[in-house]
Amino acid sequence: MAPHPLSALSLDETNLARDVVKDSYSDVVIQFRQILLHEPPKSQVTAFLDLEHAGKVTDETPRPPRLALATYDVIGGTKFPEYHESIVDLREKKRVGHEVVSSDAHHGSLAIHEFDTLVQVVQASPLFQAKIAELDLPEGFEVVVEPWPYGAPDAADGRMRLFQALIFARDTRSGNPDSNFYAYPLPLIPVMDAHTKEIIRIEELATGGKGDPLTGKTHAAHILGHNAAAEYVPELLPEGTRQDLKPLGVVQPDGPSFSVTDGNLIQWQKWSMRATFNSREGAVLHDIRYDGRSILYRLSMSDMTVPYADARAPFHRKQAFDFGDGGLGHCVNNLALGCDCLGVIKYFDGVLVGSDGTATETKNVICLHEQDNGVGWKHTNWRTGRAVVTRRRELVVQFIITLANYEYAFNFIFDQAAGITVESRATGIVSVVHIDEGKTSDYGNVVSPGVLAQNHQHVFCVRIDPAIDGPKNTLVQEESLPVRLDKRINPNGNFYEIRKTEIATSVGLDVNSAAPHNNRVFKIQNNSKLNPISGRPVGYKLTPPPTQLLLADPNCTQSKRALFARHHLWATKYKDHELYAGGKYTLQSSLEVGGVHDAAARNDDVLDEDVVLWSVFGLTHNPRVEDWPVMPVEIMQLHLTPSDFFTCNPAIDVPSNKDPTSKQVGEVTEAVTCCKL
Amino acid sequence: MAPHPLSALSLDETNLARDVVKDSYSDVVIQFRQILLHEPPKSQVTAFLDLEHAGKVTDETPRPPRLALATYDVIGGTKFPEYHESIVDLREKKRVGHEVVSSDAHHGSLAIHEFDTLVQVVQASPLFQAKIAELDLPEGFEVVVEPWPYGAPDAADGRMRLFQALIFARDTRSGNPDSNFYAYPLPLIPVMDAHTKEIIRIEELATGGKGDPLTGKTHAAHILGHNAAAEYVPELLPEGTRQDLKPLGVVQPDGPSFSVTDGNLIQWQKWSMRATFNSREGAVLHDIRYDGRSILYRLSMSDMTVPYADARAPFHRKQAFDFGDGGLGHCVNNLALGCDCLGVIKYFDGVLVGSDGTATETKNVICLHEQDNGVGWKHTNWRTGRAVVTRRRELVVQFIITLANYEYAFNFIFDQAAGITVESRATGIVSVVHIDEGKTSDYGNVVSPGVLAQNHQHVFCVRIDPAIDGPKNTLVQEESLPVRLDKRINPNGNFYEIRKTEIATSVGLDVNSAAPHNNRVFKIQNNSKLNPISGRPVGYKLTPPPTQLLLADPNCTQSKRALFARHHLWATKYKDHELYAGGKYTLQSSLEVGGVHDAAARNDDVLDEDVVLWSVFGLTHNPRVEDWPVMPVEIMQLHLTPSDFFTCNPAIDVPSNKDPTSKQVGEVTEAVTCCKL
To answer: Which residues form the Copper amine oxidase N2-terminal domain (chains A, B) (predicted)?
Structure first.
């Protein structure tokens, strides 16, 4: 039987796509970058889903074609590799779309083998070796090459495909391969031409502090003379780990409350959804419903950008697009039982491809589990002393990525009151450069001797494709606004007005300039369905976090290639395959092309239409010493909650059973729960 | 041995205070309101704490006097009761302070016996009975009288001490005393003179909708004809509780990681603090330290206000100060094992007094437990595949209060990375009034037939008395600000500036008008101590949530009696016993007196001084149908995190042990944790 339209590419399908592509060529080498499901048009999927939810799907039900998008280089005919993209129909076993993308327009996403090459080329470079020799590293230190995307090219770079590497030194004397080399940054950034595989230059980094010029060498002869170890693996901690933390476990004697059937259909506490994994976006959730009613068609992390604010060249080129530049497939963590979540866990595997296009399974890239999050709702009737209290149980879909020094955990969290939370946890090791002894800097904070953690921002974009009781929805801006004393309408001064504004045309919106004065929130509603109790359109509330947007000058490249980061919430009209806030091609981009900014600029009508929301939020991260050597999680959350979608609290039927496993310290008293008012 | 200066009044001490007060009078009746610890001057406490933390306290160490504040009415000599306040020295067994507070100036806080009287007087009132008869309640419905504080008096009310009652009807036919009467609001508010114990008037409430006038009767003859049941106790739910939620328990086989000694000294994961309970503020934490270093002298919920926005009189008088009006002592929940938190719980009891001043113990008013909150920090070395991941364990000090229809859970949360979170969870039943069939309103939302949930705000104030490595601290406003392209200082446009402004004079500050553009945060730092790594003053970062401030017209009473709600963060100079943001007397106040607004208006110098911070945040709550009949928790959080206080991540030594109790669904694979980049 054909796979469900909302299932990821299998190993076999991926290999089939590879074969079809390879069979289209002869006498050339094909080097693959990614093979992704090319999702079917929404119209075809929703037709299928309507049948499915009506219980009418049979083996004969027509299914959309299974399509794969393969991206790859063709190496042969011309001097340099050509970047191609093909759409493969897996049923027909043929290419149904094909495009050669000129490097004058875009660069294909980075592939892991390019990073491997970079490391080898840097290490073998006599020029690099000479520069290292000048630094006079202490005995027992070896050089570590950390591959990075190049960021935005400068004018002189032209359209070359470039990679850069940050350089560190590792103290090998402990014999421990996980000794933290980030404590020893070296002031060199070699730059490699990806086509010639040559080091075209080595940037020598300024290492000064306040008052020092933007360029020029100021560091001491023995550059690491003032640096110090900063270990995080437990066996290297000078004082070991703390010994007084007692175990805390989560037990689910009857198993989890969720089920996973049909490969990827998750059902839990009236929720249903399908989960897929792909190497560009990580975990993606589809066809999200509560009690059978449609809420979202698709939910995903769309992209993010991390620009650094050090004014000294070439640090303006430290700007990662962690989803767009190379996809996160090869950065995704294989999660471990008892480490990344507690309780009873269901893991999902993913599919990745190597440079030859061969698919491999990557284990445990998504974990699914339940968690308790405190009191869910409670009321005590003080007249009778009767308390009814429920716990807030949550379902978590988690994936974690490692991007060189840094990690992000992304959690899609569902609760019993029909709320959805998208959570991002930033952790890992902050990006650092060398700073001379005794200096401080306007560009960051000294977090360890000789180590400057540069100021930067993390700006995330979550793509929300709503389907509130159907695909035709409307975004409404809702503000709570003060009203002056007025004997006619506000005689006592306590009235405030709720002003609702329907968003008719695709646009980028802000919660910035007056958030606390207007309490601006957004509702996505279905104007054709009224709540039978309140008479208002059924909807969900979206509360975009009023976090800082991109700080870089709007006229600089760092800003122009991340136009999505200029507004908190974008509303665009749905278009098949328009998934990426920063555009399809972010690697080495100078301008965001085909991203959410362009989509909004179409000025599409989005009133009672298939509107898509893009929520942008982030963290201005001016590092503190406490972020070193591995930073405690910084937690950011985006909330979607039903607003007149249901006819009462959807969690009102959650049982208020006493947990039998809880225990009391000391004298056990007969606990009553009541209010003695 | 004398009690620790940071311990709450014991039962015996409270009764002793009662006796000393009563012995000061003859031939009168003394009716008590509250008996609270009158905390010793900070100078005396810190002198003691310095010795204590140096291990030098002996039985002979001088201790501050134990003082109690008793508030009470003297009934006898004059026509009306007189409100008195006395300070009692418990060692000397005598009054050392005494004041008669005129009702021309302030009203004493409400006492439970006044609410009991109100209910009786309303029910017995022939006028009230006649009004009820007019409403022609259905067979089997009985009247429920819900006592409320009166809010701000109107000019005509003079200085009378008044109480109001909201009126509901309860369907008795189920025989279940917890059938939800809030589903049947009646349009009457009787007002009682507390001294004469007479109903002075009964307000007849408008029940109209959009377009209807602000006053006047519009409701149908059989007023409850269109209302419907809205039950929340499980046995009354029409479809019962959901049956597919499987148990999830928290087990701590070796017990908790915390200890509680000396009555109230909590020690956990390098943290130490003392917890007390009093009937005005609930749980209060004192002398909070991490690894022996002082962070906060005192942390407490100071007050809150809940103004309602319905323009129709007398709804402007729906404005509770849930801490100030009567203290929350009699509203505090006695927490139950296995309900209000999971795991191994330590409960603390409290002391309350009745109208005769006799102290009673109230059990389990604070609970202390640990919780897991996901990944704490993680880093994977992609070269070796080695992942180090720790869990984020938290210690929670929780108390929950019920205020008639509504509940709040307050959590002080401590984490291993030395962060403090103050969390407020709003739940319970939203306050409702009657609305005619088929109408909708600008003043709220119809959440059940005939039931209008009025728009309102919750504005909280947390009092933070910092002691960052000592009492002399400075508040610093820190903003991240854009910088224009400039070849001298910002050649690539990516630089942004961090601007720090020391707050020299007591003041109210906002994060409102430009929060996302300036990323305004605050640091409380000790300028006399520099971090040895970064060279910056040691400090803690405070991130005031950029939530909406009070919306009421600044010239109306609702606004003037809650001046504290006009700014997000107040900085004042410490003054003994200045604890309450809304002032000591909020019951029936017309203006905030002696609150944080007045404290800031002293224009005290707070640079390198004993500065106190008051963080104001809240929720503009425009109810949704999903808030009915009991609302899912709305969670608000305030974060305090170390910022260059330590020399590295304080949680770096947290062990990364695998949890042995976690289980995997389905086929068990050999999970590796690595990044394959």
So the answer is: 4-93
Q: Chain B partners of A568 at a C-beta cutoff of 8 Å? A: 516
CA distances in angstroms from A74 to A149, A589, A643, B399, listed in the order given: 21, 21, 52, 66
Q: Does any domain span residue A4?
A: no
CB B560 within 8 A of CB B582: no
Mean pLDDT of B109-131: 96
- Which residues lie below 8 Å from residue A124, measured CB to CB, with a gap of 6+? none
User: For residues A161 and A587, what is the distance between their CA atoms, to the nearest angstrom?
Assistant: 9
The verdict on B94 and B118 lying in the same domain is no
Alpha carbons A471 and A570: distance in angstroms, whole number: 17
Contact between chains at B311 and A495 (C-beta distance less than 8 A): yes
Alpha-carbon A442 to chain mean position = 29
* Tokens linked to A595: 């991203």
Q: In the predicted model, is pLDDT for residue A668 greater than 80? A: no
Q: Which of B72, B182, B290, B406 is catalytic?
A: B406
Ranges of beta strands (E only) in B382-438 are 386-403, 406-415, 420-428, 432-434
Backbone φ and ψ for B664, nearest 5 degrees, come out as -115, 140
Q: Is residue B48 part of a domain?
A: yes
Q: What's the DSSP call for residue A12?
A: H
Q: Is B588 left (phi over 0), alpha (psi -120 to 50) or beta?
A: left
Examine the domain organization and report whether B42 and B133 are in the same domain: no
Neighbouring residues of B79: CB distance < 8 A, sequence distance ≥ 6: none
* Residue in A334, A490, A494 closest to B674 by CB: A334
Closest CA to B379 of B121, B677, B22: B677
Task: Calculate the CA B523 to chain-centre distance.
Answer: 23
Would residue B351 count as lying in a domain?
Answer: no
Distance of CA A206 to the CA centre of its chain: 32
What is the per-residue pLDDT across A142-173, written as a single tens digit (0 to 9) for each?
999 999 999 999 999 999 999 999 999 999 99
Whether residues B85 and B139 share a domain: the answer is: no
Q: Does residue A465 sit in the same domain as residue A531?
A: yes
CATH of the domain at B68: 3.10.450.40
Q: Is A259 on the interface with B (CB under 8 A)?
A: no
Residue B216 region, left (φ>0) first, then alpha (ψ -120 to 50), else beta? left
pLDDT at position A1 over 80: no
The rounded mean pLDDT for chain A is 95
ipTM: 0.96
Judged by a CB distance cut-off of 8 A, whether residue B228 touches chain A is: no
Of A444, A430, A428, A436, nearest to A227 (Cα)? A436
What is this structure's pTM? 0.97
Q: Are B639 and B553 members of one domain?
A: yes
CB contact B120 to A (< 8 Å): no
Kind plus residue range of the DSSP H or E element containing A374: strand A359-381
Parent domain of A96: 11-101
Total of domains in chain A: 3
| Token output for A528 | 């054709």
Same structural domain, A460 and A559: yes
Say which DSSP state B245 is in. Answer: P
Whether B84 and B125 share a structural domain: no
The answer, for B623 touching chain A at a CB cutoff of 8 Å, is no
Q: Which residues of A244-254 are buried (b: 16+ CB within 10 A; e: fewer)?
A: ebeebbbbbee
Same domain? B69 vs B30: yes
For residue A79, what pLDDT is reported?
67
Q: Do A376 and B311 touch (CB under 8 A)?
A: no
